Amino acid sequence: MSAAMPKTTPARIQDYRVERLLNSSPALCFFYSVSRIDAQALEGAYADPRELDGMSDANAQKWLDQSVAKRGMPALNESMELIIRHIGSIAMGLSWGHLAEINRPQSRLFQFRECFRPLARQIAHKPRFNWWWDGATTPVITAKDIGTGPLADLGDFGGWSNQPRGHDTLQTTQGPVGNDPSTLLWCVDNDTILEGDPRTTPLSQSPTQGRGFQIKEPSDWAELVRRAPHLMDDQEVVRNWTYFLGEQSSWVTPAWDLLAPHIDWVELTLGGFLLAAYQPIHVNGHATAIIGWNPGATIHFGMNMTKYLEWAKGSAEGLGDI
Which pLDDT band, with edges at 50, 70 and 90, does 177 fall under? Predict the structure, then answer.
């Protein structure tokens, strides 16, 4: 699960991404859902892949081939904000456990993954999706998110999510996207509220400033764990991860309190979420996984939050960028 991306030509990297997407439950759930529903419903709830359970193999194969051609491929040409909103719907379904039964390599959805190859190729090859892999080009801070990190400090490992959101971390996402001020308007996991102040302001430093780390594939996450592993010993968290990921194992996660002094920010790209999240990644005899992350989010460590908190709490009238 942690095989590294080939460091060769762009074409080979794109082909590698196609194969990884076709073996990733977040990507397959997304591909199924956009092929199942009409384009005007993309901002709504996802389609549940368990619908396949009542079909014969032959009927399911035929129906999926037709659905990918009729709905799936056109859906990826829709407005980017609609596509992002639907990824948010899938992220919520995974984070709340509604798709836990699907999140298994032996689930029936994986049996038909070849049906979705045209969609995987679009995301891996088409220029409009390049930023999903390269990372946010215009990172913004969203007012509703300021000061909402659930961790008292980065050494707290008792939470269900392993996204490092503490009192001195700042989260940025791509924005604007179409008519939406940022991807965080809809594309969230369950540690970030959907409601709230949608205003955004640009990050006051370059998005590439400092010592950053991008997660684009499973081996990137594995590298973070190898640098500073923390063995999870909270039994409730271990039970939840075991149920969500379908694997009985000793679980490890990055020790963010040890990593933060050495990196300034860490980003889970949108492509990285689809390709690597919510699946066991094996490191040194243990299992780890990307759990509870907002797709496409960057977490900045050791931030002075004062000016951002003041901006978020201020009146929406007449406020510009920081």
Answer: very high
How confident is the model at residue 317, as a pLDDT?
46
| pLDDT value of residue 84 | 95
Q: Which helix (H) or strand (E) holds 242?
A: helix 235-245
Q: How many residues does the chain have?
A: 322
* The pair of three-digit structure tokens given for residue 46, joined into one six-digit string: 């996802």
Using the predicted structure, report yes or no on whether residue 77 has a pLDDT greater than 60.
yes
Cα-Cα end-to-end distance for the chain? 42
pLDDT of residue 259: 96
Count Cβ neighbours within 10 Å for each residue of 244-253 and write b for 16 or more, e otherwise. bbbbebebbb
d(CA 76, CA 170): 31
Nearest to 263 by CA among 307, 289, 228: 228
Strand partners, 38: none
The percent of the chain in helix, strand and coil, each rounded to the nearest 5, is 45, 10, 45
CA distances from 208 to 10, 203, 216 (A): 21, 11, 16
Instruction: Give the pLDDT confidence score for residue 110 in this predicted structure.
Output: 95
- The DSSP H or E segment spanning 89 is helix 80-95
